Amino acid sequence: ETGVTQTPRHLVMGMTNKKSLKCEQHLGHNAMYWYKQSAKKPLELMFVYNFKEQTENNSVPSRFSPECPNSSHLFLHLHTLQPEDSALYLCASSQAPRQDQGEKLFFGSGTQLSVL
Amino acid sequence: KNQVEQSPQSLIILEGKNCTLQCNYTVSPFSNLRWYKQDTGRGPVSLTIMTFSENTKSNGRYTATLDADTKQSSLHITASQLSDSASYICVVLPRNYQLIWGAGTKLIIKP
């Protein structure tokens, strides 16, 4: 266990559905992240939160809406997704939002999302 | 073209053998270079983190090397075990920016 828990592990949704992904970290970290991992492609950073405030939005379409109510919880609300949004969505946390001091990212197991 | 390129894309070796995975990057200057291990259906787990001034770092049977002059890093796995089957991802942190991830090398260990 990495101390970062994601639910659900798998999700199948239609293009008109609304669903939410949940992430919780038990490490006392201040920064949380959403990443997208498509097959055979590098991880893509989507959002960064530091002390509940969004500090990075990597030009993510508005059909993905993050929410960070506190430093331990992170949500990704999904609506009117497209089939190309099918991917593994990974949540991560770290003590600080910048890793230039050698801080590690701790990842959850991800939510495998399929959009039909 | 990705700024972090890994080779080979996939590799199959027999249990007990050694192997070396390669990472070439164009990011410069950078703060640190990392290797992550990602088991199927799991998130990545950090193996090593090296600053630009470090040449080598070990974590058990995993040894990472870094040549900042040629912009190459390698991950050497000694006496492979079945549990080493995973994707290994090279990640570079440029200064004042976010991590840049490679696409990974998928390693399969056969008994």
Secondary-structure map:
The complex is a heterodimer of chains A (116) and B (111).
Chain A: E1 4-7, E2 10-13, E3 18-25, E4 31-37, E5 44-50, E6 53-57, E7 64-70, E8 73-79, E9 87-94, E10 106-107, E11 111-115
Parallel strand pairs in A: 2-11
Antiparallel strand pairs in A: 1-3, 3-8, 4-5, 4-9, 5-6, 7-8, 9-10, 9-11
Chain B: E1 4-7, E2 10-14, E3 19-25, E4 30-38, E5 45-51, E6 56-59, E7 62-67, E8 72-77, E9 86-94, E10 100-101, E11 105-110
Parallel strand pairs in B: 2-11
Antiparallel strand pairs in B: 1-3, 3-8, 4-5, 4-9, 6-7, 7-8, 9-10, 9-11
Name the helix and strand elements of chain B from N-terminus to C-terminus, one letter apiece: EEEEEEEEEEE
Rounded mean pLDDT of chain A is 92
Low-pLDDT stretches of chain B are none
Query: Regions of chain A with pLDDT < 50 over 5+ consecutive residues?
Result: none
What is the mean predicted local confidence, pLDDT of chain B?
94
Number of helices of chain B: 0
Instruction: Give Rg of chain B in angstroms.
Output: 13 Å
Structural class label of chain A: mainly beta
Task: Describe what you observe in this structure.
Chain A is an all-beta fold. Chain A is 0% helix and 55% strand. Chain A contains no helices and eleven strands. In chain A, strands 2, 4, 5, 6, 9, 10 and 11 form a seven-stranded mixed beta sheet that branches. In chain A, strands 1-3-8-7 form a four-stranded antiparallel beta sheet, with no helix packed on it. The radius of gyration of chain A is 13 Å and the shape is globular. Chain B contains no helices and eleven strands. Chain B has strands at 4-7, 10-14, 19-25, 30-38, 45-51, 56-59, 62-67, 72-77, 86-94, 100-101, 105-110. In chain B, strand 7 and strand 8 form a beta hairpin. The radius of gyration of chain B is 13 Å and the shape is globular. The model of chain B has no long low-confidence stretch (mean pLDDT 94). Chain A binds chain B through residues 2, 4, 40-43, 45, 48, 56, 90-92, 99-100, 102, 104-105, 107-110, 112, and chain B through 2, 4, 9, 31-32, 41-46, 49, 51, 89, 93, 95-96, 98-104.
